[in-house]
Design goal:
The protein has about 350 residues and is mainly beta. Helix content is about 5%, strand content about 45%. The protein has 2 domains: about 250 residues, Porin (Beta Barrel); about 100 residues, Cupredoxins -  blue copper proteins (Immunoglobulin-like, Sandwich). Bound molecules: copper (II) ion.
Length: about 350
């Protein structure tokens, strides 16, 4: 159990920063991620296949990109859009375009942030402008240590451009081999009647010291929308997905000179130790000071954190990016603390 907990603590860091990580979902499942309100999530999925050469012409590379743009509205609700250029969902109603725009909202109905242990459930109502179809997805995943199991139930009111509603189901799994690498696969299909199943497999990578994740993928899906992920094509496509979380606070210096470097707390107390908060953790997780000395926390992350004591003693308010908090300790003891918005961030002050 302790090993599982330690591994969970490691893997959660990989997914942190309030953005989407590809290490918690397989290529054709939209996962249960919800971006934070100060993050704009941009994902670029590019797949391609090479046509066989024919007499008189050589090979062609057919490109099938899908873009995701999304932002949080609250801690649990996000809005966004998928845009895919090689969608077949309009064919049934005679659409000549293959450009599919799907608008969606997402509500995290159950569970914590992406990458936390246990069950997560999201509800994603959507509208496909190409199929003129009200679509929706109920997604659930369960993360235990290195493994995430995923499932999705989908519905399209005008499935594949026809006037009839149809359900689809999909399932997949992700195995994280380390903090930086994962393998995943999934399968899904419309039902009654079933169609050629949509499948994918991927190798996912967290790019060290960055909020970006990258996936190498193989799949028979050309458009990664709700309906698109529910039907396979006859081609095998290769490609990649790259996730780009844009933290709006990073752009604050454009508008505020110097940013906030406020120091709060017992600023005049003699310092015994300094903790630099970064990459969503308290890197020196145990510091030792003498009675009467203070600890200073400097926040180097682009988002706010707190120092909140587990025993209920007064701690900090939200420490802004570039801000600091100083706390003097007048009694000997061991004081464990965490960050309120990110409870997996933990540290200990030992006062002797
Ligand atoms: Cu935090």
């Amino acid at each position: 159990m302790r090993i599982v907990t330690a591994f969970a603590a490691l893997t959660v860091v990989a997914s942190a920063l309030g953005a989407q990580s590809l290490l918690y979902r397989s290529p054709n499942l939209a996962g249960t991620w919800v971006p934070e309100p100060d993050v704009v999530q941009f994902n670029f999925l590019h797949r391609f296949y090479v046509t066989p050469s024919t007499a008189g012409s050589g090979h062609f590379v057919i490109n099938s990109p899908t873009f995701t743009l999304s932002t949080g509205v609250t801690h649990r609700i996000a809005i966004g859009t998928w845009f895919a250029t090689k969608s077949i969902v309009g064919v049934g109603r005679g659409a000549t375009s293959t450009d599919e725009t799907e608008l969606f909202a997402r509500w995290r109905a159950f569970g914590g942030a992406e990458g936390t242990e246990g069950l997560h459930v999201t509800v994603t109502p959507a509208y496909s402008m190409l199929a003129k179809s009200a679509d929706g997805e109920l997604a659930a995943d369960y993360t235990i240590g290195a493994l995430t199991l995923e499932g999705a139930a989908r519905y399209a009111s005008k499935a594949l451009g026809q006037s009839k509603g149809r359900a689809a189901f999909a399932g997949g799994a992700v195995a994280r081999l380390s903090r930086y690498f994962a393998l995943s696969a999934d399968i899904g299909s419309f039902v009654s009647p079933t169609v050629r199943a949509a499948w994918s497999a991927g190798i996912q990578v967290l790019i060290p010291n960055s909020p970006h994740t990258f996936a190498f993928e193989v799949s028979n899906v050309t458009a990664s929308t709700i309906q698109g992920n529910s039907i396979g094509s006859s081609q095998r496509l290769y490609g990649f997905e790259f996730t780009i979380p844009i933290h709006l606070r990073r752009f604050a210096p454009w508008f505020h000179k110097g940013g906030s470097s406020a120091v709060t707390g017992d600023v005049a107390a003699p310092l015994g130790a300094t903790v630099s908060i970064g990459a969503m953790k308290f890197p020196t997780d145990t510091v030792v000071v003498s009675v009467g000395q203070a600890v200073r926390w400097n926040n180097t992350d682009p988002l706010g954190h707190t120092v909140t004591f587990d025993n209920g003693e007064p701690g900090s308010a939200l420490i802004d990016p570039n801000g600091s908090y100083v706390r003097r300790f007048d009694h000997a003891g061991t004081f464990s603390y965490h960050c309120t918005p990110h409870p997996f961030m933990k540290g200990v002050v030992v006062v002797k």
